[in-house]
Design goal:
There is one protein chain. With 302 residues, the chain is an alpha+beta fold. It has one domain: 3-Layer(aba) Sandwich (Beta-lactamase). The chain has eleven helices and nine strands. Strands 2-1-9-8-7 form a five-stranded antiparallel β-sheet, sandwiched between helices. Strands 3-6 form a two-stranded antiparallel sheet. A two-stranded antiparallel sheet has the order 4-5. The chain starts with 11 loop residues before the first helix and ends with a helix.
C-alpha cells in the first residue's frame, strides 16, 4: 500500500526510523525533537530486552504513517490476517448470510466457536467473521477462506484494496509456521497498519460495516495483555491478536485501534518475532511499546 508523503514536522522521525532499523533519528535530521529521540531509544531498548525482532507502525487517518520501527520488514501475520478476512466477508455480496457447513474433521484444535456450533454443523458467514476476530477461531477463518477463493483469493482482494505487500499463502494452521526467511503469509507493520486504517476509515466498506468491525475489535479480549495493556485506560481501544510458531520460531503480534481524548484516531501494528522467554513475556513487551507510543502522543498534545 502506498505510503503518504511525510510533510509535517511531527512525521519526520518516521522516515528516519524506516531506514534505520534501530529507530534512531539520523544525526542532524531537521525537525527531530527530543521526544522523538526518546521514543526511538525506548523502542530500541524494548526490542533489545525482548531478545527478538520488533516491528511497529502507527497510522492516523489524517496523517497516514506517523511512526515506524522496522516498518518495512516482513513478519509472519499469524492470526492478525483475520481482521481483513472479516472485512472481506462484509465486502463480499451474500457471504454474511450464507450457511457455512462443517463436520468434525474441520474443527481445528483452537476453534472455540466451531466447537460450540458442532452439534448444528454450520455457522453463518457473519458469525464466522465475528468469531474469527473476537475469538480468533481457526475453523471459522478456514470456512471463510474456502468461500473467497482461498489464500490466493484473499490476497487478490488485498491488492484491490491497494495493499501490494501483504500475502496469504496457506490456511490455518499451516500459515503459523514462521520459518526463517519464508515470505509466505507475511506482511510489514507499515502495510498492515495502513490496510486496517483503510478498512476502518476508508470508503471501501459501508459505514455500518466499518462500525461493526470496530465494535468487534473493542469486544475482543484475546489481547488485553498486549497493546491495550499499555494504553491509558480512558482511551477507547480494540485489537486483533496473532500468535504463531513454537519455540525459537514463535511470534506474538497485535494490531490495536484506539482513540485519544482529543478525538484523534490511530492504528498501531506490532509484531514481535522470536523473543526470549514466554508468550507472557512477549505480551508484556508489546504493552511496553504501546506505553511508549502513548507517552509520546501525550507529549505531542494527545
Amino acid at each position: 500500500m502506498r505510503v503518504r508523503a511525510l510533510f509535517l514536522p511531527l512525521l519526520l522521525a518516521t522516515a528516519a526510523c524506516s531506514v534505520n532499523p534501530q529507530g534512531s533519528p539520523e544525526r542532524g535530521e531537521p525537525g527531530t525533537s527530543a521526544a522523538q529521540q526518546d521514543l526511538a531509544a525506548r523502542i530500541s531498548e524494548i526490542e533489545t530486552a525482548s531478545g527478538g525482532r520488533l516491528g511497529l507502525a502507527l497510522h492516523s487517518p489524517d496523517k497516514g504513517l506517523v511512526y515506524a520501527y522496522r516498518g518495512d520488514e516482513r513478519f509472519a501475520m499469524c492470526s492478525t490476517f483475520k481482521l481483513a478476512l472479516a472485512a472481506m466477508t462484509l465486502d463480499t455480496p451474500g457471504l454474511r448470510e450464507k450457511r457455512l457447513h462443517f463436520g468434525a474433521g474441520d474443527i481445528l484444535s483452537y476453534a472455540p466457536y466451531a466447537k460450540e456450533r458442532a452439534s448444528s454443523g454450520w455457522m453463518s458467514g457473519l458469525e464466522a467473521a465475528h468469531h474469527a476476530v473476537t475469538l480468533s477461531d481457526n475453523t471459522a477463518a478456514n470456512l471463510l477462506l474456502a468461500e473467497v477463493g482461498g489464500p490466493d483469493g484473499f490476497t487478490r482482494w488485498l491488492r484491490s484494496m491497494g495493499d501490494e505487500t501483504t500475502r496469504l499463502d496457506r490456511n490455518e494452521p499451516a500459515l503459523n509456521e514462521n520459518a526463517p526467511g519464508d515470505p509466505r503469509d507475511t506482511t510489514t507493520p507499515t502495510a498492515h497498519a495502513d490496510l486496517v486504517g483503510a478498512l476502518l476509515w476508508g470508503d471501501r466498506l459501508a459505514p455500518a460495516d466499518r462500525a461493526l468491525l470496530e465494535e468487534w475489535l473493542v469486544e475482543t479480549t484475546t489481547g488485553m495483555n498486549r497493546l491495550r495493556a499499555g494504553l491509558p485506560g480512558e482511551w477507547r481501544a480494540g485489537d486483533k491478536t496473532g500468535t504463531c510458531g513454537t519455540g525459537v520460531q514463535g511470534e506474538v503480534n497485535d494490531i490495536a485501534m484506539f482513540e485519544t481524548p482529543d478525538g484523534s484516531r490511530y492504528i498501531l501494528a506490532a509484531y514481535l518475532d522470536r523473543a526470549d522467554g514466554s508468550a507472557s513475556d512477549a505480551e508484556a513487551r508489546l504493552a511496553e511499546a504501546a506505553r511508549a507510543i502513548a507517552d509520546w502522543l501525550q507529549q505531542m498534545g494527545a
